[in-house]
Amino acid sequence: MFGPGYSAGCPSCSSIADGFNGFVTHLENHDVTLHAVSRAPLPTLQAYKRRMGWTFPWASSLGSDFNADFHVAFTEEQQRLGDVDYNYQHAGHAMDEQPVSPTVAQIARTCGTDATTYALDRPGMSAFVREDGVVYHTYSTYTRGLDGLWGAYQWLDRAPKGRNEDGFWWRRHDEYDRP
Predict the structure, then answer these.
(1) How does strand 124-131 pair with strand 134-142?
(2) pLDDT at position 153
(3) 10, 66, 77, 130: most buried by Cβ count inside 10 Å?
(4) What is the helix (H) or strand (E) element at residue 42, kind and residue range?
(5) Distance between CA 28 and CA 135 in Å, rounded?
(6) What's the domain count of the chain?
(7) Is the dihedral of CA 11, 14, 16, 22 positive or negative?
(8) Rounded to 5 degrees, what are φ and ψ at 167?
(9) Mean pLDDT, rounded, for 72-81
(10) Is residue 59 domain-resident?
(11) Three-state DSSP class for 179?
């Protein structure tokens, strides 16, 4: 998740993406292509990709309806009116709360933006198939549905203390030595 008003990618989404390099080759050998899509400008995404050492394909959807079509990006007007459909429900997500939760505000700050701008973009994953030149949307998931893509969670869930989540704990892999 990397919106046009961010200076860095979302730390939890970045943690999920850290695992992509390792398995993208395996997917390709099963006729599956992984392609990340974010609304930030392509030069911004490319610079962040270099910083993180990622090699998987990443496209910018800036200026298109792609993210909105799959309910992972919203307009300021939708946000203001509370007209946000995300994770198969109308509003009600932590990113829709007013006043903004301290955790959402803190994550937004780590992305170099404010909570209102941060909440315009949400995490999600969709799958498509192309058959006879026609592209079909076959699957989408959001929020906790993304946990299965987060390689570290699969290990933490089996550790003695589990995920051991206590407050804001997400870091980009190059930031763990920072307070």
Answers:
(1) antiparallel
(2) 87
(3) 10
(4) helix 42-52
(5) 18
(6) 1
(7) negative
(8) 70, -155
(9) 93
(10) yes
(11) coil
121 — phi, psi (to 5°)? -120, 140
* DSSP character string of 143-176: GGGGGGG-HHHHHHTTSTTTT---SS----TT-T
Mean pLDDT of the chain: 93
Q: Please compute the mean of the pLDDT values over residues 71-100 and round it to a whole number.
A: 91
* Residue 102: C-alpha distances to residues 59, 67, 115 (Å): 31, 26, 9
pTM of the model: 0.90
Strands 36-38, 89-90: pairing kind: unpaired
User: Which residue range(s) make up the domain with 18?
Assistant: 11-156
* Cross-strand partners of 127: 139
CATH number, domain of 103, equals 3.40.30
pLDDT at 67 over 90: yes
Domain for residue 56, yes or no? yes
Q: How many CA atoms lie within 13 A of 120 on its CB side?
A: 18
Of 130 and 94, more confident = 130
| Contact status, residue 45 vs residue 38, Cβ threshold 8 Å | yes
Give, for 38, the enclosing helix (H) or strand (E): strand 36-38
In a domain? residue 3:
no
